[in-house]
């Protein structure tokens, strides 16, 4: 553009004397004026080239920034817990507490087929694997921030992705239930996912412990998982998802202290886990509309076919679990309303207790009861939620069935 403008200016300069001679205008003054104008034009064009170059560099920087995505959420929670087992003590009363969960995640599209991400969350290093809550205590002491996620994903083939690191649970959870995996659980290891328009599948390889110690004599505990599902439409408002899953968590003979600080409902033999967990899963989810409201119906059933590696211990009898429920409405926008109900029964050795929903029955297995929830949208992506658990636990693991009630009031926002 600069060269074109200069050419036009030079042409004008050459032709001007001829035109001005015919009109009687003094040519020397006019030529001097044109030279001055041309100099100003050249300077402006130089400035324009500098601006264009700077803009080009900025666009390159913006192009990189567009590959970075940041998201997070914040939750303030007040809860009250009535646990009959703990209330039996002298002077015991309901538990009341306020808690905060904060999470921030970043993902980067490194190249066309590689993505990397990490997330931070409230918590304590080496703390609860199924909770990122920080309790308000310690006279307003600061709260810890820990690595919640860290992973690399590689799309190595059409519709297939390999992810390695610490991630969200990669398996489909009907109704987002925590029958097998709590929503805050972040498995460590690797998984491969396949997905097309209708079929999805996941293969997982994870660790409960990957370090055999400096002497090489500690147990490395590996877990395996596989899930396959099929999604299809019944009509424009109804989508159905069905599938099967298998999860292998070999724990028989492993020391409780090497895995969790508590058996969380599972059977034990002395100081070790009594059984392996070979969990078979069948699930279904239906998303539709009722009276114009988004509605989800779901069910999940599991059975543990694992046995014991310890002599003299028979196969587990309390080995099944299920949940069914419904969710109606949405509270994502201001004035939106949603509610839900679920009933769950999780027997003592149906699954590994350390990874199940940490709120239901106080966490772990050997629990059953109902969960009721409601939410009201206060603004876009901000809501007030109420959740009530009316459950029982401990019939097999503690020899006595205890009532356990929990009420949670949450203020949630996402960005």
Question: Which structural traits does this protein have?
Answer:
415 residues, alpha+beta, two-stranded antiparallel sheet, 19 strands, 17% helix, 47% strand
Q: What do these coordinates show?
A:
The structure is a single chain. This protein has 415 residues and is α+β, with helices and mostly antiparallel strands. The protein contains 4 helices and 19 strands. It has helices spanning 2-23, 27-65, 84-87, 256-259, and strands at 68-83, 95-109, 114-122, 134-135, 145-157, 160-166, 188-195, 199-209, 221-235, 238-249, 268-269, 272-273, 277-290, 293-304, 320-329, 337-346, 367-379, 382-393, 402-414. 27% of the residues are buried. The model is unreliable at 13-25 (pLDDT under 50).
Task: Summarize the biggest pleated sheet.
Answer: 16 strands, antiparallel, barrel
Distance between the termini: 44 Å
Structural class: alpha+beta
Biggest sheet, spatial arrangement of strands = 1-2-3-5-6-7-8-9-10-13-14-15-16-17-18-19
Tell the overall outline.
elongated
Count of helical stretches: 4
What is the strand tally? Answer: 19
| Proportion of residues in helical segments | 10-25%
- The oligomeric status of these chains comes to single chain
Poorly predicted runs of 5 or more residues: 13-25
Order of helices and strands: HHEHEEEEEEEEEHEEEEEEEEE
User: On the 0-100 scale, what is the average pLDDT?
Assistant: 90
Relative strand content: over 45%
């Amino acid at each position: 553009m600069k060269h074109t403008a200069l050419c036009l200016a030079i042409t004008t300069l050459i032709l001007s004397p001829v035109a001005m001679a015919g009109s009687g205008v003094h040519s020397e003054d006019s030529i001097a004026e044109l030279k001055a104008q041309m100099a100003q034009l050249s300077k402006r064009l130089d400035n324009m080239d500098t601006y264009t170059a700077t803009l080009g560099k900025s666009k390159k920087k913006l192009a990189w920034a567009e590959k970075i995505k940041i998201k997070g959420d914040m939750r303030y929670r007040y809860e009250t817990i009535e646990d009959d087992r703990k209330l039996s003590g002298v002077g015991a009363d309901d538990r009341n507490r306020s808690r905060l969960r904060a999470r921030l995640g970043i993902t980067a599209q490194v190249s066309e087929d590689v993505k990397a991400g990490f997330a931070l969350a409230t918590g304590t290093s080496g703390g609860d694997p199924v909770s990122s809550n920080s309790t308000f205590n310690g006279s307003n002491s600061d709260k810890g921030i820990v690595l919640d996620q860290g992973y690399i994903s590689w799309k190595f083939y059409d519709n297939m992705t390999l992810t390695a690191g610490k991630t969200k649970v990669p398996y489909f959870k009907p109704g987002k239930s925590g029958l097998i995996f709590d929503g805050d659980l972040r498995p460590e290891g690797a998984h491969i996912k396949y997905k097309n328009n209708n079929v999805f599948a996941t293969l997982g390889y994870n660790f409960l412990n990957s370090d055999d110690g400096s002497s090489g004599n500690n147990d490395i505990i590996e877990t395996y998982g596989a899930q396959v599902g099929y999604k299809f439409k019944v009509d424009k408002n109804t989508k159905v998802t069905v599938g099967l899953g298998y999860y292998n968590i070999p724990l028989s003979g492993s020391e409780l202290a090497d895995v969790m600080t508590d058996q969380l409902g599972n059977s034990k033999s002395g100081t070790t886990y009594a059984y392996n967990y070979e969990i078979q899963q069948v699930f279904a989810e239906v998303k539709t509309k009722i009276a114009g409201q988004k509605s989800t119906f779901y069910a999940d059933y599991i059975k543990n076919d694992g046995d014991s590696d310890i002599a003299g211990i028979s196969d587990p009898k309390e080995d099944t679990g299920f949940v069914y429920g419904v969710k109606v409405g949405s509270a994502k926008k201001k004035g939106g309303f949603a509610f839900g109900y679920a009933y769950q029964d999780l027997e003592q050795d149906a699954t590994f207790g350390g990874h199940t929903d940490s709120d239901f029955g106080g966490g772990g297995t050997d629990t059953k009861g109902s969960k009721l929830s409601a939410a009201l949208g206060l603004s876009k992506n901000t809501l007030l939620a109420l959740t009530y658990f009316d459950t029982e636990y401990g019939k097999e693991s503690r020899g006595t069935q205890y009532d356990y009630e929990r009420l949670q009031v949450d203020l949630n926002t996402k960005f």
